[in-house]
TrEMBL record:
Name of the featured protein: Cilia- and flagella-associated protein 46-like
Gene: LOC115944811
Spans annotated as Disordered: 197-218
Organism from which the protein derives: Leptonychotes weddellii
Biological processes per GO annotation: axoneme assembly; cilium movement involved in cell motility
Superkingdom to which the source organism belongs: Eukaryota
Length: 741
């Protein structure tokens, strides 16, 4: 009860301070100190009381350097939003100079390009080399400050540096934020890390031995002084330091005066690209290769060291979270690593992150996932994919594609590959088993679980391990009531993995799988729609007309309903799936015509819908694919003026869709695709296979043919003015190639 009263007074002090009532706040802190009989909050209360006392000293200059820094930070906190960054920066710089008058300005100038000295030489890489060298030399001065300072007011200085970093970050003064973070983390790097790594070797005799014993005792004493509060500060500043290093490498718009490496445009863990040589040279001059330039190698090493520093800061923060058993710190470290390396994950470069992700997983296993199983699933999926991607056979070239028989004598993986893939399976099964037992409020989104299932099935195939009739769920969950959605997703992945020259899975009948999917209770409509689309594809591949029509109709009806309520990003994804489904539906109808003209009209309608959905998705490839199939469908009837008249409005609509889609093409995808390897699925190139009739061989030929057909539609009725407008538009829109003739 006494401790509770202490905590209440601390909270009351915060409330009073927020209302700018400093005297009552100080009284609450003094009462809290009297109630803190165990000394749990002694340091925190002492610093808070001193800080408020300094805030009341309007016309007095404190003597202690730490007090000067605190006062400057408090003044910076009171800056109003309309104050300039220069004014805020001046106060924050004063705080840093008060704490480290000998080196703070030097470290701060490490990012000042005006301080970079290039010398007399003016080579291709001279400036980059000079900038990198200037930064490295300046930053190295920080360690000397701590050696000269010794152990003076360690705990207080750590918290002041941390506060300075956080205030600078909040106010957008990034160079001060980075410099303050660097000084704060010196206490962790130089002192704490030495304490947890005792030296190995034989002890010296006599006085040296006694001195070593005394040093060892002081190490133990100092290590005990490193409280969880200080370690927590190190973790928080580690996040800030790494993030700020990264934000300067990413091409984002940040309001700041100086941005480290912004002009280089390098992302985290990426290599810089050498600049173009724009200088004029005499004939016979040989351009210097970057690999042979010591200056470029120095600059490249500096860029890589910044990435390594950011990654190290996040890993160190995770280790601190494990040390003080605070899972939220570990969780934040994992989120930072996954988010800021997303470009590597999307590009299939998880292999480069395997060591980091494996270390993080071991920490998460020790501390728990803090009620966030989704984070754990994403971590394990990235790690597992990093372990297997290098061992998946490359995709067959487009020209040589043909149905492949399963290789019953597929060469097994070598020992190294087998070990990595087996580890990937263990990682997937660990998290699948764990998330099977989570309560409803901690349930993993189906889309995240689907990614992991795809990875697990592919790893099982590489190891040539069949998945049982219960679709692997008996291997991960001790419960008989297995998740029906998971079983459907596993079966779909097995279908996607077959026919690629590797071991084929024994899959359940397609009709049974469709029945299982219809009986599921889907929590994610996007995954349900994708499942119906994939079932449509596999039914069409199996020439099962009835199942193809059943699944495609259900998917299109559901997708149209969902289009009306989803976000812009989801709209494009849904439209892509609807375009693919409608195209497959039309192809299936055409393959089962049996001379029925009415069905040809139904197929043409499906292809038109496919083109419309492709336009909504801003996906030119899907639009042109649907239009090709529409052309094939209608070409036999286009010799008749009556049929051309019927097709006129549709042709105008199709041309409009093509032109609009070309004008605003889809941006580069930042969403992790379900498969990062060849599959038998719809997104593996199979949709483009097939014979196309004359006029639809390539995109430009098809567009020119459509304009020609529309001109004939006008000419049939003597509308030469309308026909000329069509030709004018074609000349204006089509690129300058032979097609315009």
């Amino acid at each position: 009860m006494v401790l509770l009263r202490c905590q209440v007074h601390m909270e009351m002090a915060h409330i009073e301070e927020d209302e700018d009532r400093l005297e009552p706040a100080m009284q609450h802190l003094q009462k809290a100190m009297l109630l803190d009989s165990l000394g749990l909050y002694r340091d925190k209360l002492t610093m808070a009381l001193n800080r408020l006392h300094l805030c009341t000293m309007l016309y007095q200059a404190p003597e202690r350097a730490e007090d000067k820094a605190i006062m400057a930070i408090e003044q910076a906190k009171k800056a109003i939003p309309k104050d300039s960054v220069r004014k805020k920066r001046a106060l924050l710089v004063n705080a840093g100079l008060a704490l480290a008058p000998d080196t703070f300005q030097i470290v701060l100038d490490s990012e000042n390009e005006a301080k970079v000295s290039m010398g007399k030489s003016r080579g291709r890489f001279t400036y980059l080399f000079a900038k990198a060298r200037h930064h490295m030399i300046s930053v190295d001065k920080a360690a000397g400050h701590l050696r000269r300072l010794g152990n003076e007011n360690d705990k207080e200085r750590i918290q002041i540096w941390a506060e300075l970093a956080k205030v600078a970050r909040r106010q957008g003064v990034w160079d001060v934020c980075r410099a303050a973070s660097r000084f704060c983390l010196l206490y962790d790097n130089v002192k704490v890390k030495k304490l947890v790594r005792p030296k190995k070797g034989k002890k010296k005799k006599g006085g040296d031995s006694q001195a070593q014993d005394a040093w060892g005792q002081s190490e133990v004493t100092l290590q005990r002084q490193v409280s969880p509060t200080l370690l927590r500060k190190f973790a928080e500043v580690g996040f800030i330091s790494a993030e700020k290093s990264l934000l300067n490498l990413a091409p984002k718009v940040l309001e700041a005066t100086v941005q480290l490496l912004r002009s280089e445009g390098v992302e985290l863990n990426n290599h810089p690209h050498p600049p173009e040589d724009l200088s004029q040279h005499s004939a016979g001059y040989t351009v210097e290769s970057p690999e042979d330039s010591a200056q470029w190698i120095t600059y490249q090493t500096w860029i890589e060291s910044l990435s390594q520093s950011a990654m190290h800061s996040w890993l160190r923060s995770a280790e601190i979270g494990q040390e003080i058993q605070e899972g939220w710190i570990v969780q934040n470290a994992v989120v930072y690593v996954l988010n800021h390396n997303h470009h590597l994950i999307v590009a299939g470069r998880q292999k480069e992150l395997v060591d980091t992700l494996d270390h993080l997983l071991s920490i998460v296993k020790a501390t728990g996932h803090s009620g966030d199983p989704t984070m754990l699933v994403m971590l394990c999926n990235a790690l597992a994919r990093g372990l297997i991607l290098n061992w998946i056979p490359a995709q067959v070239p487009e020209k040589s594609k043909r149905p492949m028989r399963s290789n019953l004598f597929h060469i097994p993986l070598d020992s190294v590959a087998s070990s990595e893939v087996r580890t990937a399976v263990e990682v997937c099964e660990f998290v699948l088993s764990l998330t099977d037992r989570t309560v409803h409020k901690e349930a993993v989104p189906t889309s995240a679980r689907q990614q992991l299932i795809a990875t697990w099935v592919k790893a099982k195939q590489l190891l040539q391990q069949q998945i049982g009739p219960r679709l692997g769920m008996d291997e991960q969950s001790p419960n008989e009531d297995v998740n029906s959605v998971t079983r459907v997703l596993v079966a779909l992945e097995m279908y996607s993995s077959n026919g690629l020259g590797l071991m084929d899975f024994t899959v359940p009948p397609l009709a049974q799988l469709v029945k299982m999917a219809s009986e599921c209770s889907w929590s994610d409509p996007l995954v349900e729609l994708q499942t119906l689309m994939r079932l449509t594809h596999f039914a069409h591949a199996a020439h099962d007309y009835e199942v193809t029509m059943l699944c495609s109709q259900k998917a299109i009806q559901m997708g149209i309903r969902y289009l009306r309520m989803c976000s812009p990003v989801e709209t494009e994804l849904v439209a892509e799936m609807l375009s693919t489904t409608a195209c497959i539906q039309g192809r299936s109808i055409m393959e089962n015509l049996k001379g029925r003209k009415q069905l040809r009209l139904v197929a043409a309608k499906a292809f038109i819908e496919s083109a419309q959905f492709g336009g909504i998705a801003r996906n030119s490839a899907l639009v042109m694919l649907a239009v090709r199939h529409y052309w094939n469908t209608w070409l036999p009837f286009l010799s008749s003026a009556a049929n051309r008249k019927k097709a006129k409005n549709v042709i105008q609509r199709i041309i409009s869709i093509i032109n609009k889609t070309e004008a605003k093409k889809q941006g580069k995808g930042k969403v992790l695709t379900l498969h990062q390897w060849p599959t038998a699925d719809f997104h593996s190139g199979g949709m483009t296979e097939g014979h196309f009739l004359p006029g639809a061989e390539d995109d430009l030929t098809l567009r020119a043919a459509l304009y020609g057909l529309l001109f004939h539609c006008h000419a049939d009725h003597g509308d030469w003015e309308g026909g000329l407008k069509v030709l004018d538009e074609a000349v204006r829109v089509l690129p300058r190639t032979a097609h315009r003739l």
